[in-house]
Specification:
Distance between the termini: 43 Å
Radius of gyration: 28 Å
Helix content: 10-25%
Strand order of the largest sheet: 1-2-3-6-8-9-10-13-14-15-16-17
Mean pLDDT: 85
Oligomer: single chain
Structural class: mainly beta
Low-confidence stretches: 2-19, 66-72
Strand content: 35-45%
Largest sheet: 12 strands, antiparallel, barrel
Number of helices: 4
Shape: elongated
Order of helices and strands: HEEEEEEEEEEEEEEEEEEHEHEHE
Number of strands: 21
Length: about 425
Protein backbone atom coordinates (compact mmCIF):
# COMPACT_ATOMS: atom_id res chain seq x y z
CA UNK A 1 0.00 0.00 0.00
CA UNK A 2 2.81 2.45 0.83
CA UNK A 3 4.31 2.01 -2.64
CA UNK A 4 0.98 3.03 -4.22
CA UNK A 5 0.68 6.42 -2.61
CA UNK A 6 4.44 7.13 -2.69
CA UNK A 7 4.23 6.71 -6.47
CA UNK A 8 1.09 8.87 -6.53
CA UNK A 9 2.78 11.70 -4.63
CA UNK A 10 5.74 11.46 -7.00
CA UNK A 11 3.40 11.99 -9.96
CA UNK A 12 1.91 15.03 -8.24
CA UNK A 13 5.35 16.55 -7.69
CA UNK A 14 6.37 16.21 -11.33
CA UNK A 15 2.97 17.23 -12.75
CA UNK A 16 3.82 20.83 -13.65
CA UNK A 17 4.11 20.58 -17.42
CA UNK A 18 0.58 21.49 -18.55
CA UNK A 19 0.64 23.87 -21.50
CA UNK A 20 -3.03 24.26 -22.41
CA UNK A 21 -6.11 25.79 -20.87
CA UNK A 22 -8.91 23.58 -19.53
CA UNK A 23 -12.01 25.68 -18.83
CA UNK A 24 -14.22 22.71 -17.94
CA UNK A 25 -13.13 22.75 -14.30
CA UNK A 26 -16.31 21.19 -12.89
CA UNK A 27 -15.55 17.84 -11.19
CA UNK A 28 -18.66 16.28 -9.64
CA UNK A 29 -18.78 13.86 -6.74
CA UNK A 30 -20.90 10.72 -6.60
CA UNK A 31 -22.88 11.79 -3.54
CA UNK A 32 -21.89 8.60 -1.73
CA UNK A 33 -19.80 10.70 0.66
CA UNK A 34 -20.65 14.18 1.94
CA UNK A 35 -19.58 17.17 -0.14
CA UNK A 36 -19.97 17.39 -3.92
CA UNK A 37 -17.29 19.23 -5.88
CA UNK A 38 -15.38 19.88 -2.64
CA UNK A 39 -13.92 17.34 -0.21
CA UNK A 40 -14.69 16.39 3.40
CA UNK A 41 -13.27 13.85 5.86
CA UNK A 42 -16.19 11.55 5.01
CA UNK A 43 -14.83 8.56 3.03
CA UNK A 44 -16.06 5.24 1.68
CA UNK A 45 -15.37 2.37 4.11
CA UNK A 46 -12.88 -0.31 3.17
CA UNK A 47 -14.24 -2.61 0.47
CA UNK A 48 -17.10 -0.37 -0.66
CA UNK A 49 -17.28 0.34 -4.39
CA UNK A 50 -19.24 3.11 -6.09
CA UNK A 51 -19.80 4.06 -9.69
CA UNK A 52 -21.80 6.88 -11.19
CA UNK A 53 -22.54 9.00 -14.21
CA UNK A 54 -22.68 12.80 -14.24
CA UNK A 55 -23.90 15.25 -16.88
CA UNK A 56 -23.35 19.00 -16.95
CA UNK A 57 -23.78 21.79 -19.48
CA UNK A 58 -21.83 25.02 -19.06
CA UNK A 59 -22.57 28.34 -20.78
CA UNK A 60 -19.78 30.82 -21.62
CA UNK A 61 -16.94 29.52 -19.44
CA UNK A 62 -14.35 31.42 -21.55
CA UNK A 63 -14.86 34.80 -23.20
CA UNK A 64 -12.46 37.37 -24.62
CA UNK A 65 -12.81 40.99 -23.59
CA UNK A 66 -11.14 44.29 -24.43
CA UNK A 67 -11.06 47.89 -23.28
CA UNK A 68 -13.35 48.90 -26.17
CA UNK A 69 -16.24 46.50 -25.59
CA UNK A 70 -17.41 44.37 -22.70
CA UNK A 71 -17.18 41.26 -24.83
CA UNK A 72 -15.43 40.79 -28.16
CA UNK A 73 -16.46 37.17 -28.59
CA UNK A 74 -16.72 33.87 -26.80
CA UNK A 75 -13.94 31.34 -27.19
CA UNK A 76 -16.01 28.65 -25.49
CA UNK A 77 -19.75 29.29 -25.65
CA UNK A 78 -20.92 25.92 -24.42
CA UNK A 79 -19.71 22.46 -23.38
CA UNK A 80 -21.78 19.41 -22.44
CA UNK A 81 -19.78 16.85 -20.49
CA UNK A 82 -20.56 13.41 -19.15
CA UNK A 83 -18.41 12.22 -16.23
CA UNK A 84 -17.86 8.51 -15.58
CA UNK A 85 -17.19 8.32 -11.84
CA UNK A 86 -15.63 5.41 -9.94
CA UNK A 87 -14.60 5.20 -6.28
CA UNK A 88 -13.30 2.46 -3.98
CA UNK A 89 -12.43 2.19 -0.29
CA UNK A 90 -8.85 0.88 -0.14
CA UNK A 91 -9.05 1.31 3.64
CA UNK A 92 -11.40 3.08 6.03
CA UNK A 93 -8.97 6.02 5.92
CA UNK A 94 -7.90 5.80 2.26
CA UNK A 95 -9.98 5.95 -0.95
CA UNK A 96 -9.24 6.11 -4.66
CA UNK A 97 -11.48 8.06 -7.05
CA UNK A 98 -11.36 8.27 -10.85
CA UNK A 99 -13.24 10.75 -13.04
CA UNK A 100 -13.29 10.06 -16.80
CA UNK A 101 -14.97 13.00 -18.61
CA UNK A 102 -16.36 12.73 -22.13
CA UNK A 103 -17.34 15.99 -23.86
CA UNK A 104 -20.56 15.17 -25.69
CA UNK A 105 -20.92 18.58 -27.32
CA UNK A 106 -18.71 21.66 -27.67
CA UNK A 107 -19.19 25.09 -29.16
CA UNK A 108 -15.64 26.43 -29.37
CA UNK A 109 -13.60 28.91 -31.41
CA UNK A 110 -10.04 27.52 -31.17
CA UNK A 111 -8.67 30.56 -33.01
CA UNK A 112 -9.92 34.11 -33.63
CA UNK A 113 -11.84 33.33 -36.82
CA UNK A 114 -15.53 33.34 -37.70
CA UNK A 115 -15.86 29.58 -38.02
CA UNK A 116 -16.52 27.67 -34.83
CA UNK A 117 -15.87 24.07 -33.84
CA UNK A 118 -19.25 22.56 -32.95
CA UNK A 119 -20.05 18.94 -32.28
CA UNK A 120 -18.56 16.00 -30.36
CA UNK A 121 -15.65 17.15 -28.22
CA UNK A 122 -14.03 13.82 -27.35
CA UNK A 123 -12.31 12.86 -24.12
CA UNK A 124 -11.52 15.23 -21.27
CA UNK A 125 -8.62 15.03 -18.83
CA UNK A 126 -8.87 12.00 -16.53
CA UNK A 127 -8.52 12.86 -12.84
CA UNK A 128 -7.31 10.42 -10.18
CA UNK A 129 -7.22 11.33 -6.49
CA UNK A 130 -6.42 9.52 -3.24
CA UNK A 131 -8.31 11.02 -0.26
CA UNK A 132 -6.42 10.26 2.95
CA UNK A 133 -8.36 10.84 6.17
CA UNK A 134 -6.37 12.16 9.12
CA UNK A 135 -9.27 12.83 11.54
CA UNK A 136 -12.85 11.66 11.18
CA UNK A 137 -15.37 14.38 12.07
CA UNK A 138 -17.88 11.71 13.12
CA UNK A 139 -15.51 10.17 15.67
CA UNK A 140 -13.45 12.99 17.20
CA UNK A 141 -14.74 14.50 20.45
CA UNK A 142 -14.75 17.97 18.85
CA UNK A 143 -16.43 16.62 15.68
CA UNK A 144 -13.67 18.20 13.59
CA UNK A 145 -12.26 16.29 10.62
CA UNK A 146 -9.23 16.62 8.38
CA UNK A 147 -8.21 14.95 5.12
CA UNK A 148 -5.44 15.32 2.54
CA UNK A 149 -6.30 14.73 -1.12
CA UNK A 150 -3.42 14.46 -3.64
CA UNK A 151 -4.59 14.55 -7.26
CA UNK A 152 -3.17 13.83 -10.70
CA UNK A 153 -4.74 14.98 -14.00
CA UNK A 154 -3.88 12.87 -17.02
CA UNK A 155 -3.81 14.84 -20.32
CA UNK A 156 -6.37 12.81 -22.26
CA UNK A 157 -8.38 15.83 -23.49
CA UNK A 158 -7.95 18.33 -26.29
CA UNK A 159 -5.97 21.39 -25.22
CA UNK A 160 -6.49 23.20 -28.52
CA UNK A 161 -10.22 23.38 -27.73
CA UNK A 162 -9.63 24.77 -24.23
CA UNK A 163 -11.09 21.62 -22.66
CA UNK A 164 -7.90 19.75 -21.81
CA UNK A 165 -4.28 20.17 -20.72
CA UNK A 166 -1.31 19.22 -22.88
CA UNK A 167 0.72 17.71 -20.08
CA UNK A 168 0.47 15.99 -16.73
CA UNK A 169 -0.80 18.32 -14.01
CA UNK A 170 -2.12 18.02 -10.50
CA UNK A 171 -1.74 19.11 -6.92
CA UNK A 172 -3.11 18.49 -3.43
CA UNK A 173 -5.99 19.74 -1.27
CA UNK A 174 -6.38 19.95 2.49
CA UNK A 175 -10.00 19.49 3.58
CA UNK A 176 -11.25 20.43 7.04
CA UNK A 177 -14.80 19.97 8.28
CA UNK A 178 -17.06 20.26 11.32
CA UNK A 179 -19.91 17.82 11.86
CA UNK A 180 -22.60 19.24 14.14
CA UNK A 181 -25.78 17.24 14.45
CA UNK A 182 -26.90 16.34 10.95
CA UNK A 183 -25.01 19.28 9.44
CA UNK A 184 -21.52 19.45 7.97
CA UNK A 185 -19.56 22.64 7.33
CA UNK A 186 -16.36 22.17 5.35
CA UNK A 187 -13.53 24.12 3.74
CA UNK A 188 -10.83 23.23 1.17
CA UNK A 189 -7.44 24.80 0.52
CA UNK A 190 -5.10 23.45 -2.11
CA UNK A 191 -2.71 24.04 -4.97
CA UNK A 192 -2.73 23.21 -8.67
CA UNK A 193 0.64 22.88 -10.41
CA UNK A 194 0.87 23.80 -14.10
CA UNK A 195 3.14 25.68 -16.50
CA UNK A 196 2.17 29.05 -17.90
CA UNK A 197 -0.28 29.32 -20.80
CA UNK A 198 -1.31 32.61 -22.39
CA UNK A 199 -4.39 33.44 -24.49
CA UNK A 200 -4.87 37.08 -25.39
CA UNK A 201 -4.69 38.93 -22.05
CA UNK A 202 -5.16 35.72 -20.04
CA UNK A 203 -2.08 34.06 -18.55
CA UNK A 204 -2.43 30.94 -16.39
CA UNK A 205 0.21 29.41 -14.10
CA UNK A 206 0.41 27.66 -10.73
CA UNK A 207 -2.77 28.32 -8.73
CA UNK A 208 -4.12 28.29 -5.23
CA UNK A 209 -7.53 26.60 -5.01
CA UNK A 210 -10.10 27.02 -2.24
CA UNK A 211 -13.73 26.49 -1.35
CA UNK A 212 -16.33 26.32 1.40
CA UNK A 213 -19.43 24.16 1.60
CA UNK A 214 -22.40 23.26 3.77
CA UNK A 215 -24.56 20.11 3.72
CA UNK A 216 -27.65 19.30 5.75
CA UNK A 217 -30.83 17.20 5.52
CA UNK A 218 -33.82 18.71 3.80
CA UNK A 219 -36.03 15.80 4.91
CA UNK A 220 -34.48 13.06 7.06
CA UNK A 221 -37.62 10.94 6.77
CA UNK A 222 -37.36 10.80 2.96
CA UNK A 223 -33.54 11.06 2.63
CA UNK A 224 -33.41 14.47 0.93
CA UNK A 225 -30.32 16.66 1.41
CA UNK A 226 -29.20 20.10 0.27
CA UNK A 227 -25.62 21.14 -0.51
CA UNK A 228 -24.27 24.64 -1.08
CA UNK A 229 -20.67 25.28 -2.18
CA UNK A 230 -18.52 28.18 -3.32
CA UNK A 231 -15.18 27.38 -4.92
CA UNK A 232 -12.49 29.31 -6.73
CA UNK A 233 -8.81 29.75 -7.53
CA UNK A 234 -6.24 32.46 -8.05
CA UNK A 235 -2.81 32.59 -9.68
CA UNK A 236 0.08 32.89 -7.23
CA UNK A 237 1.99 35.48 -9.31
CA UNK A 238 -1.02 37.82 -9.57
CA UNK A 239 -2.55 36.85 -6.25
CA UNK A 240 -6.12 38.28 -6.34
CA UNK A 241 -4.88 41.21 -8.40
CA UNK A 242 -6.85 40.49 -11.59
CA UNK A 243 -10.35 39.13 -12.07
CA UNK A 244 -9.60 37.12 -15.20
CA UNK A 245 -7.31 34.72 -13.28
CA UNK A 246 -9.55 34.59 -10.19
CA UNK A 247 -12.63 32.49 -11.09
CA UNK A 248 -15.24 31.94 -8.36
CA UNK A 249 -18.30 29.73 -8.81
CA UNK A 250 -21.27 29.12 -6.49
CA UNK A 251 -23.46 26.03 -6.73
CA UNK A 252 -26.48 24.46 -5.09
CA UNK A 253 -27.42 20.76 -5.08
CA UNK A 254 -30.56 18.86 -4.11
CA UNK A 255 -29.81 15.24 -3.29
CA UNK A 256 -32.10 12.23 -2.95
CA UNK A 257 -31.12 8.79 -1.63
CA UNK A 258 -32.80 5.38 -1.90
CA UNK A 259 -32.05 1.75 -1.02
CA UNK A 260 -30.38 2.38 2.34
CA UNK A 261 -28.42 5.28 0.80
CA UNK A 262 -26.89 3.05 -1.90
CA UNK A 263 -28.59 4.85 -4.81
CA UNK A 264 -28.02 8.62 -4.94
CA UNK A 265 -29.39 11.25 -7.34
CA UNK A 266 -28.01 14.81 -7.45
CA UNK A 267 -29.51 17.76 -9.34
CA UNK A 268 -28.11 21.27 -9.21
CA UNK A 269 -27.07 24.51 -10.86
CA UNK A 270 -24.29 27.06 -10.53
CA UNK A 271 -23.05 30.35 -11.91
CA UNK A 272 -19.90 32.38 -11.83
CA UNK A 273 -19.48 35.07 -9.20
CA UNK A 274 -16.50 36.61 -11.01
CA UNK A 275 -15.54 36.81 -14.69
CA UNK A 276 -12.50 34.58 -14.32
CA UNK A 277 -11.70 31.84 -16.83
CA UNK A 278 -13.90 28.77 -16.38
CA UNK A 279 -16.42 30.80 -14.35
CA UNK A 280 -19.70 30.31 -16.27
CA UNK A 281 -22.72 32.43 -16.93
CA UNK A 282 -24.70 29.33 -16.00
CA UNK A 283 -24.16 25.64 -15.39
CA UNK A 284 -26.80 22.93 -14.98
CA UNK A 285 -25.84 19.45 -13.81
CA UNK A 286 -27.08 16.11 -12.55
CA UNK A 287 -25.52 12.81 -11.51
CA UNK A 288 -26.61 9.38 -10.34
CA UNK A 289 -24.52 6.79 -8.53
CA UNK A 290 -24.80 3.38 -6.92
CA UNK A 291 -22.55 1.77 -4.32
CA UNK A 292 -22.25 -1.74 -2.97
CA UNK A 293 -20.06 -3.70 -0.60
CA UNK A 294 -19.31 -2.90 3.01
CA UNK A 295 -21.45 -0.14 4.54
CA UNK A 296 -19.99 2.66 6.61
CA UNK A 297 -19.06 1.72 10.14
CA UNK A 298 -21.02 3.31 12.91
CA UNK A 299 -18.99 5.93 14.77
CA UNK A 300 -16.65 4.30 17.27
CA UNK A 301 -17.78 6.47 20.19
CA UNK A 302 -19.55 4.47 22.89
CA UNK A 303 -23.34 4.43 23.22
CA UNK A 304 -23.09 3.51 26.90
CA UNK A 305 -21.03 5.07 29.67
CA UNK A 306 -20.48 4.34 33.37
CA UNK A 307 -19.84 6.86 36.16
CA UNK A 308 -18.49 5.64 39.55
CA UNK A 309 -19.08 7.16 43.01
CA UNK A 310 -17.34 7.11 46.40
CA UNK A 311 -18.99 5.22 49.25
CA UNK A 312 -22.22 6.82 50.51
CA UNK A 313 -21.77 9.86 48.25
CA UNK A 314 -23.95 11.32 45.48
CA UNK A 315 -21.09 13.24 43.83
CA UNK A 316 -19.17 11.20 41.26
CA UNK A 317 -15.38 11.01 40.98
CA UNK A 318 -14.16 14.07 38.99
CA UNK A 319 -12.36 11.96 36.38
CA UNK A 320 -15.71 10.59 35.16
CA UNK A 321 -16.69 14.02 33.88
CA UNK A 322 -14.89 12.96 30.67
CA UNK A 323 -17.32 10.03 30.25
CA UNK A 324 -20.31 12.34 30.65
CA UNK A 325 -18.85 14.81 28.17
CA UNK A 326 -18.18 12.07 25.63
CA UNK A 327 -21.68 10.61 25.64
CA UNK A 328 -23.29 14.08 25.62
CA UNK A 329 -21.31 15.03 22.50
CA UNK A 330 -22.11 11.69 20.89
CA UNK A 331 -25.84 12.14 21.49
CA UNK A 332 -25.78 15.70 20.08
CA UNK A 333 -24.10 14.42 16.91
CA UNK A 334 -26.52 11.49 16.44
CA UNK A 335 -29.78 12.62 18.03
CA UNK A 336 -31.66 11.64 14.88
CA UNK A 337 -30.90 8.02 15.85
CA UNK A 338 -30.65 8.14 19.66
CA UNK A 339 -33.63 10.15 20.87
CA UNK A 340 -33.35 9.65 24.65
CA UNK A 341 -30.72 9.06 27.33
CA UNK A 342 -31.39 6.62 30.17
CA UNK A 343 -29.63 7.57 33.43
CA UNK A 344 -29.85 4.74 35.98
CA UNK A 345 -28.51 4.97 39.54
CA UNK A 346 -27.08 2.01 41.50
CA UNK A 347 -25.48 1.34 44.91
CA UNK A 348 -23.62 -1.42 46.69
CA UNK A 349 -25.39 -3.53 49.35
CA UNK A 350 -24.37 -1.60 52.46
CA UNK A 351 -27.34 0.13 54.08
CA UNK A 352 -31.08 -0.49 53.95
CA UNK A 353 -33.00 -0.93 50.73
CA UNK A 354 -34.91 2.33 51.29
CA UNK A 355 -31.70 4.27 51.94
CA UNK A 356 -29.99 2.81 48.84
CA UNK A 357 -33.01 3.55 46.66
CA UNK A 358 -32.81 7.19 47.71
CA UNK A 359 -29.03 7.30 47.26
CA UNK A 360 -29.22 5.82 43.77
CA UNK A 361 -31.77 8.38 42.62
CA UNK A 362 -29.59 11.21 43.99
CA UNK A 363 -26.65 9.82 42.05
CA UNK A 364 -28.69 9.57 38.85
CA UNK A 365 -29.94 13.15 39.26
CA UNK A 366 -26.35 14.39 39.74
CA UNK A 367 -25.35 12.84 36.42
CA UNK A 368 -28.51 14.11 34.70
CA UNK A 369 -27.69 17.64 35.94
CA UNK A 370 -24.19 17.32 34.46
CA UNK A 371 -25.64 16.19 31.11
CA UNK A 372 -27.96 19.21 31.02
CA UNK A 373 -24.98 21.47 31.72
CA UNK A 374 -23.28 19.92 28.67
CA UNK A 375 -26.17 20.75 26.35
CA UNK A 376 -28.57 17.79 26.63
CA UNK A 377 -32.18 18.97 27.12
CA UNK A 378 -33.71 17.72 30.38
CA UNK A 379 -36.76 16.33 28.54
CA UNK A 380 -34.44 13.94 26.69
CA UNK A 381 -33.21 12.32 29.93
CA UNK A 382 -35.00 9.42 31.66
CA UNK A 383 -33.89 9.07 35.30
CA UNK A 384 -34.41 5.76 37.08
CA UNK A 385 -33.31 4.08 40.33
CA UNK A 386 -32.30 0.47 41.05
CA UNK A 387 -30.68 0.80 44.48
CA UNK A 388 -28.67 -2.31 45.32
CA UNK A 389 -30.81 -4.67 43.22
CA UNK A 390 -28.65 -4.94 40.07
CA UNK A 391 -25.00 -5.42 41.05
CA UNK A 392 -22.43 -5.92 38.27
CA UNK A 393 -19.90 -7.45 40.66
CA UNK A 394 -20.14 -9.42 43.97
CA UNK A 395 -20.38 -7.25 47.08
CA UNK A 396 -18.83 -10.09 49.06
CA UNK A 397 -16.43 -12.90 48.24
CA UNK A 398 -17.56 -16.53 48.18
CA UNK A 399 -16.39 -17.03 51.77
CA UNK A 400 -18.50 -14.09 53.01
CA UNK A 401 -15.73 -11.50 53.28
CA UNK A 402 -16.14 -7.91 52.10
CA UNK A 403 -15.22 -7.27 48.44
CA UNK A 404 -14.20 -3.57 48.15
CA UNK A 405 -13.44 -3.79 44.41
CA UNK A 406 -16.84 -5.29 43.67
CA UNK A 407 -18.63 -2.73 45.82
CA UNK A 408 -16.84 0.09 43.96
CA UNK A 409 -18.10 -1.25 40.61
CA UNK A 410 -21.64 -1.32 41.96
CA UNK A 411 -21.58 2.31 43.16
CA UNK A 412 -22.37 3.62 39.71
CA UNK A 413 -24.65 5.43 37.28
CA UNK A 414 -25.13 3.92 33.82
CA UNK A 415 -25.90 6.25 30.89
CA UNK A 416 -27.45 4.49 27.89
CA UNK A 417 -28.53 6.01 24.57
CA UNK A 418 -31.95 4.87 23.45
CA UNK A 419 -32.70 4.47 19.74
CA UNK A 420 -35.72 5.84 17.96
CA UNK A 421 -38.58 3.34 17.90
Amino acid sequence: MKKIYLLFFALVLVSSSAQALNVQTFRPGTGQVEGYTLYTSDLLPKGRFTYGLGLNYVVNPLEVGSAVTNRVRGLVDGVMTSDILVGYGLADWLNINVDVPVHLYTNVAPVFIANRDQGFGGMGDIVVNLPIRIWDAEQTASHLGLALIPEVKIPSGYGTNYIGDDGLSGGATLAGDWKFGDNRLYANLGTNFRDKEAISNLGINHEMTYGVGYQRPLSKEHDWNIIAEVKGSTKYKEFYSEEITTPVEALGVIQKKWMDESLVLNVGASRGITGGYGSPDFRGFTSISYSFGKHKKKPAAAIKEKVLFPFDRDQYYPEYDTNIDRIANYWKAHKDVYVKLSVAGHTDSKGSNAYNDNLSIRRAKAVAKALVAKGVPSDKIIVSTFGENEPVAPNETTDGKDNPDGRQQNRRVEITLLKKE
